């Protein structure tokens, strides 16, 4: 079953169950000693509590040692023993020595012995009495916690008890320790004395380690009352808390909406106190070194810590040894770090505020002297914290320059943004803004980049050249990545006058960019005018890179317009076009070729785009090429594995509207055609339409066509007509009929079904006129399809040469264009037309459509065809060779079961999934049997709904 995982209980014992299962039998053997070590907050006390709660038929006593400068003798032991009630007849005379120490038990204890002659004899008598009292209790488990703070008398008692334990005693000892215990060593880490029990005593030692990232996420889910938390959040939480259960609980108790935030959590007061308590035990030099480590942050070697703390190497190493012993830091990656992020914060905040800038300045200078590549970003942060903003900006700009040289567009963008936020001078600000604008195009930045560039432009301190270039690049950012379509075109248009004043090449480039058409842009006539302006300036452009950019955008614009001269323009592209420019132009050309119906050209362009993008780390271009490839795969019927790929892209490319819209489109189309999930598909398609910024002929038209099919399958022709109106308006407004190949056939079918044949004829005439003289094979195939569909409204007899000829020509056209879905769609319409008029061959044609749909796994379309056969009295024959699902639900059974669990009736399910009522009954019955339930109300729990 695919049930969701249960919500972990808030008190669930995460990551320790196997350990607990191993300790229970060991403690059950008597006498036994169990030693549990681990660092503070790792869960030793919780493990002891769980162990004692599950220990049968034994009295349990818990003593806890406390840190104290002058502890009362045997204090933790006396406190817990005072609560027991021994039988007087089991107490030997020596226990009378405890009358003064245990007044609550005085009435049960034997008479006190006479005073000892010397203090040592008296102390030994008390020790013997405590051991005897413990032995008199019979079957008992004594737990003594926090032995790192045990006083000498308590240690002496435990040493005596371990060396000769009572036969029914179970002894549990815990101590703070960062490493595995060494119970036979006099100087063991955490244990204040060696444990050397007799051979017959069962001795078990366990060291608790922090929780893993996965275990941290499970614990967080239980504390927050959710099934799971995002993996990214679990990783961040583990970094903040070190996987220590106590710290995790303290953080989440004060941060209930933590998973919705990105910021670091608040520092719990309890965690602050715990860290400060450890600092108090450190000598002065150790506190200075730890303060330096908190300022440096990353794993820091000895010489760097010493330089920031102002100490020599010998003093630094001695200080680190003390800090290591207290568990304040640990060794890692050749340096020293804090055990978890919040511990570092607590130490940093404990550094006196006036002292912090001094330490940060030392850190910046020490890092600058450090061997190897200069960590410019870290140095910049230290300069910023030291109050030296000019030096900080200088380092950030240098770091961004380095990232740009290395091809890391994202890192360079972040660096330039940080530098601008540092408040540089006007000259430096303008220089950095231009660098930011140039690099951000390939970085998939968020809205902060356009905002930063606008802020610089508003200062009006730039000359015409930089101002025009920044405005041009800002427009490109808005066009490509922010979802601001027309606003982007207008921003680029405003850049042209400034650019003309300083660079004809830059002005021509800007004009060629805004000449690229889109469904949400200007009419094609305006784009042609702009392209003509760019072509007029081209002879005056001498710079090779600018000339190449203009030629690349010219080829893209002509291809998207369906201009026959486009392929000559492609041939004119310079051979030297490489890297990011090559990836961009070939991805554009591949998309245009796919949309217009040139599959061979599309594959060639796509291969060159992949080749170029693989040699450059440009996240924007990688996303561009990937979504272009996904659209080509869908169009070509290569659907296997495509849904998973599209869903990954939808998750990854949410920051680039057009790429996100294309991923949503493919997800929606595949959810519809391969899963039959009409509601899910419509939601995805609606999101795609809302998300797309400009749309070069794919999203608006394909989404509208799919929604039309959903309405027509449900016999809602009027709603189908409404669904097509928005996309049709954009096509008519722009005149981009070459992009109507998906939209026009669906629109014609909807209008005919709604009794509006006259409007359908007008639409076909508009399409024919709009693609005249254009190189758009897909649009011509769509025109053939539309004319074939119109035969049902024109009175042309089905089965006649004219009608069949149109359908056959359309089918052949789509097949030649490697569009299997469209070819099957035409065959379906053809077969249904033949069946509706009683002409011969309808059943055969429709079965050919079914076979074609099955070849590409178009399940929903197969079911629609089968329903059409049933509606015309034909028997549906299942295609041989289909795999069975055994005791597992088939995709169709699962879809029916989910709708049944949501409360839909069989008739409503049949309407939703385009099935017959009887078929739904069969699917529901099989789902109930396979899930092992007897009613529809139980289905939801089995499916995890």
Question: What's a concise summary of this model?
Answer:
With 945 residues, this protein is mostly helical.
H/I helix tally:
44
Total number of β-strand segments? 7
Flag low-confidence runs: 1-10, 182-188, 877-884
Outline type: flat
Gyration radius from CA atoms, angstroms: 39 Å
How would you write the strand order of the largest sheet?
A: 2-3-4-1-5
Q: What would you say this structure looks like, in words?
A:
With 945 residues, the protein is mainly alpha-helical. The protein is 62% helix and 4% strand. The protein is built from 44 helices and seven strands. The strands form two sheets. It has a five-stranded parallel β-sheet with strand order 2-3-4-1-5. The longest helix is centred in the middle third of the chain and has 19 residues, at 464-482.
Secondary-structure topology with pairs:
Blueprint: H1 17-28, E1 32-38, H2 44-53, E2 59-64, H3 75-81, H4 119-136, E3 140-145, H5 152-163, E4 169-176, E5 202-207, H6 213-224, H7 231-241, H8 245-253, H9 269-280, H10 284-296, H11 302-309, H12 313-326, E6 330-332, E7 335-337, H13 341-350, H14 356-369, H15 376-385, H16 389-405, H17 409-421, H18 426-440, H19 448-458, H20 464-482, H21 485-502, H22 504-514, H23 524-537, H24 544-561, H25 566-571, H26 579-596, H27 599-613, H28 619-635, H29 642-652, H30 657-673, H31 678-691, H32 699-713, H33 717-734, H34 743-753, H35 757-770, H36 777-794, H37 801-816, H38 820-837, H39 842-855, H40 859-871, H41 891-901, H42 906-913, H43 917-931, H44 939-943
Parallel strand pairs: 1-4, 1-5, 2-3, 3-4
Antiparallel strand pairs: 6-7
Helix pairs in contact: 4-5, 6-7, 6-8, 9-13, 10-11, 10-12, 10-13, 10-14, 11-12, 11-14, 14-15, 15-16, 16-17, 17-18, 18-19, 18-20, 19-20, 20-21, 21-22, 22-23, 22-24, 23-24, 24-26, 26-27, 26-28, 27-28, 28-29, 28-30, 29-30, 30-31, 30-32, 31-32, 32-33, 32-34, 33-34, 34-35, 34-36, 35-36, 36-37, 36-38, ...
């Amino acid at each position: 079953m695919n049930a969701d995982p249960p919500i972990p209980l808030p008190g669930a014992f995460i990551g320790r169950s196997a350990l607990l299962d191993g300790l229970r039998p060991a403690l059950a053997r008597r006498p036994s000693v169990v030693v549990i070590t681990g660092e503070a907050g790792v869960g030793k006390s919780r493990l002891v509590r769980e162990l004692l709660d599950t220990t049968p038929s034994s009295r349990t006593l818990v003593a806890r040692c406390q840190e104290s400068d002058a502890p009362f003798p045997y204090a933790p032991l006396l406190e817990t023993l005072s609560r027991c009630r021994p039988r007087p007849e089991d107490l030997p005379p020596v226990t009378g020595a405890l009358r003064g120490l245990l007044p609550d038990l005085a009435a049960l204890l034997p008479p006190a012995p006479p005073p000892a002659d010397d203090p040592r004899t008296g102390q030994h008598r008390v020790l013997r009495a405590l051991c005897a009292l413990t032995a008199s209790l019979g079957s008992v488990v004594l737990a003594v916690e926090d032995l790192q703070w045990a006083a000498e008398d308590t240690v002496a008692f435990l040493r005596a008890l371990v060396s000769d334990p009572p036969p029914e005693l179970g002894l549990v000892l815990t101590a703070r320790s960062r490493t595995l215990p060494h119970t036979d060593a006099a100087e063991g880490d955490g244990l204040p004395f060696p444990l050397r029990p007799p051979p017959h005593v069962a001795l078990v030692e366990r060291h608790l380690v922090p929780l893993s990232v996965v275990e941290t996420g499970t614990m967080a889910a239980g504390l927050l009352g959710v099934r799971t938390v995002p993996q990214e959040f679990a990783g961040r939480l583990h970094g903040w808390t070190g996987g220590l259960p106590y710290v995790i609980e303290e953080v989440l108790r004060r941060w209930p909406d933590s998973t919705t935030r990105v910021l670091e959590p608040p520092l719990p007061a309890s965690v602050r106190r715990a860290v400060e308590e450890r600092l108090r035990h450190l000598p002065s030099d150790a506190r200075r070194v730890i303060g330096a480590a908190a300022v440096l942050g990353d794993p820091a070697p000895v010489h760097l810590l010493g330089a920031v703390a102002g100490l020599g190497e010998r003093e630094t190493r001695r200080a680190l040894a003390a800090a290591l012993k207290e568990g304040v830091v640990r060794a890692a990656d050749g340096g020293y770090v804090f055990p978890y992020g919040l511990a570092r914060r607590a130490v940093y905040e404990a550094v006196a505020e006036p002292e912090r800038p001094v330490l940060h300045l030392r850190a910046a200078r020490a890092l600058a002297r450090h061997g190897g590549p200069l960590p410019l970003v870290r140095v910049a942060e230290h300069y910023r914290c030291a109050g030296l903003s000019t030096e900080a900006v200088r380092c950030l700009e240098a770091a961004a320059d380095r990232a740009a040289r290395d091809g890391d567009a994202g890192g360079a963008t972040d660096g330039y943004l940080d530098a601008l936020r540092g408040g540089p001078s006007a000259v430096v600000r303008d220089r950095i803004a231009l660098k930011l604008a140039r690099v951000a195009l390939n970085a998939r930045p968020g809205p902060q980049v356009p905002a930063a560039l606008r802020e610089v432009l508003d200062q009006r301190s730039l000359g015409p050249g930089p101002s025009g270039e920044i405005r041009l690049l800002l427009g490109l950012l808005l066009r490509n990545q922010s979802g601001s379509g027309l606003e982007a075109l207008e921003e680029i248009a405003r850049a042209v006058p400034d650019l003309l004043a300083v660079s004809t090449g830059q002005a021509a480039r800007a004009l060629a960019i805004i000449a690229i058409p889109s469904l949400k842009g200007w009419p094609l006539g305006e784009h042609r005018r702009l392209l003509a302006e760019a072509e007029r300036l081209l002879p005056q452009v001498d710079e090779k890179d600018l000339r190449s950019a203009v030629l690349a955008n010219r080829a893209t614009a002509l291809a998207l317009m369906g201009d026959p001269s486009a392929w000559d323009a492609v041939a004119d592209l310079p051979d030297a076009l490489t890297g990011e420019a090559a990836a961009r132009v070939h991805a554009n050309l591949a998309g245009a070729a796919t949309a217009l119906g040139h599959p061979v050209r599309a594959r060639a362009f796509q291969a060159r785009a992949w080749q170029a993008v693989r040699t450059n780390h440009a996240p924007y271009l990688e996303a561009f090429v990937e979504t272009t490839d996904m659209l080509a795969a869908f169009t070509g019927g290569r659907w296997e594995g495509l849904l998973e790929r599209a869903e990954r892209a939808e998750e990854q490319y949410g920051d680039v509207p057009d790429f996100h819209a294309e991923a949503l489109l493919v997800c929606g189309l595949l959810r519809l055609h391969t899963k039959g999930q009409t509601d899910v598909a419509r939601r995805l398609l609606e999101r795609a339409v809302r998300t797309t910024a400009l749309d070069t002929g794919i999203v608006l038209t394909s989404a509208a066509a799919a929604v039309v099919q959903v309405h027509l399958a449900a016999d809602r022709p009027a709603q189908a007509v409404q669904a097509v109106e928005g996309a049709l308006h954009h096509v008519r407004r722009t005149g981009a009929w070459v992009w109507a190949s998906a939209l026009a056939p669906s629109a014609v079918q909807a209008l005919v079904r709604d009794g509006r044949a006259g409007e359908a004829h007008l639409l076909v005439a508009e399409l024919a006129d709009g693609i005249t003289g254009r190189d758009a094979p897909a649009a011509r195939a769509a025109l053939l399809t539309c004319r074939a569909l119109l035969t049902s409204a024109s009175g042309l007899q089905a089965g006649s040469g004219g009608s069949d000829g149109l359908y056959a020509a359309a089918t052949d056209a789509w097949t030649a264009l490697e569009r299997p879905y469209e070819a099957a769609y035409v065959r379906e319409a053809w077969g249904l037309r033949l069946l509706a008029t009683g002409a011969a061959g309808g059943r055969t044609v429709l079965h050919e459509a079914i076979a074609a749909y099955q070849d590409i796994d178009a399940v929903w379309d197969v079911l629609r065809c089968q329903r059409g056969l049933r509606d015309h009295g034909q028997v549906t024959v299942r295609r041989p060779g289909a795999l069975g699902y055994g005791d597992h639900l088939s995709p169709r059974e699962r879809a029916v079961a989910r709708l049944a669990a949501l409360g839909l009736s069989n008739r409503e399910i049949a309407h939703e999934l385009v099935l017959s009522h009887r078929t739904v009954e069969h699917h529901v019955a099989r789902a109930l049997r396979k899930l092992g339930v007897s009613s529809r109300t139980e289905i939801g729990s089995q499916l995890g709904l």
